[in-house]
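Much of our argument rests on the idea that a fold can be written as discrete symbols. The amino acid sequence and the backbone structure tokens for this protein are reproduced below:

___
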Amino acid sequence: MFSYFFILGNNPALSVAEILNKFQPKKYSLINKEVFRVEFEKKIDEQKVIKKLGGTVKLAMIKEPVSAEATPRQAISNEITNNKLQITRLAKATPRRANKLQNSKVQTSIKEKNHKPQNFSFGKDSKGQAMGNKIPAEPRKNSEELLGAVEKYLPEKFEGKYKFGFSFYGESSSRGGYSKNSHGEEFNLKKLAMDIKRELKAREISCRWITSKGNNLSSVVVAKNKMIDRGQEFIVVTGQGKKYLGITKAVQDFEELSFRDYNRPARDSQSGMIPPKLAQMMLNIGLQGRVTIPDYPSYDKAIISAKSSKNFITLAEARASKIISQGDSAGVKNLSQNSDLSLQKDNTKQSPTDQVLLDPFCGSGTILMEAMLLGVQDVIGVDVSEKAVKNTRKNLEWVQERFNLSKKNSFEVRVGNAVKLAGIIKEGSVDVIVTEPYLGPQKKAGNIEKVKKDLEVLYTGAIREFRKILKPGGRVVMVWPVLRGAKNSFMNPKIEGFKIVSQIPGDLKGVESTDRGTIVYGRRGQRVWREITTLEKAS
């Protein structure tokens, strides 16, 4: 079995729902509100998998639980005393390194004997007395445990500068170089990092400790510092009364998501601005892992990978020189041909079947773009606005060309009314409907109760048509607006012929859904939040 930590995004419930639908794992657990654990029978292609998950920030392989019984550092000291560890390392070392190892241990022993704590202030101890420069016993113990676990995964040899860092999930605070998790355990992070640097120096490895202000490194920091390829990010997860150690294998590709969002030829706030991440999550919930993820090059990665060549240019330079522009794709094509960017085949269990996916309120085509990138063979877009239909066509042509999607991926976009779908789409021909419909006036509405009533009429009519064109057992993943300020903020359209399918298992505690099994998505300060609703047609 291969165990992974999925570090969840801003909406843990939606992130968990996406993972469960996409992989349908047999063994999983929520470690804490930030971390979801999943076990696979086979190793997955982490880099490829995370590109297809909108709600996962990092993907880390679990290495081991961090034992609390005996401190590994004490065990290491005992081994050194008995000459076991020293003999093992010296046997492998060159004469020059052997001398360095011996000197390093001697110097370390002297330093530990004459050690004086650094001038940090850590507040008061449990008896209310000022701690001053005293190093608390628990942080020292916990740090030694963690050091013993981490040391096993440090490289024996490394060319260039090795970059390492730590992220702690399940914590509540940090102060003065100490990190504190939700169980009250503290880690002396600075001492831990210095011990690791000392160990790497003994192995003749140049290194750099990557830090951040918070308790964990962002995906941007990990990516920018190339820690996956040129180092390691160690993930320390606390929850369910246990501590686990993992190593990050992939992070969410913020550059590519931004590229798809802002470089497509048509963006129109009036035609809908659903974020690509949310579109991916909704699609994965609707598709339930029934498509094969295609191999395609990422053009942000194409530019980045060209760094090793003499003709390297930055993304900003490429945009400035119109290599990445709306009208010129030749530069991008040539660049991608010179880069070996083919992705490995996905090893996760999936049954490839042709799926027909419809977005009846397609807007600018974001959902359809993401569906094609996820491997859906046939996508259909419908919108009452001719401008929206033109924008969607432009964007789908763009994504098909720029990401070199197979011509087998077909799309069709039509002008039409969502409440009259059966007149333009064959009944019983659609597998999945994923859509964000018209959510009401963009600016503050005068009569919010009237807006709510009008939207319920619109959605009831559309859902009636969905029932006609969907296959038996077909799914609808749909946004219903939560109009904050109305007497009853939640929508209540009629859903005859459908049932709401809850995406969070009843025995999974720690992530929230509404009483009717839907998931609310929104940020503080937003006037309109989104209620992600999954409907299933009766068989």
Observations:
- The two ends are 35 Å apart (CA to CA).
- DSSP finds 16 helices and 19 strands in the chain.
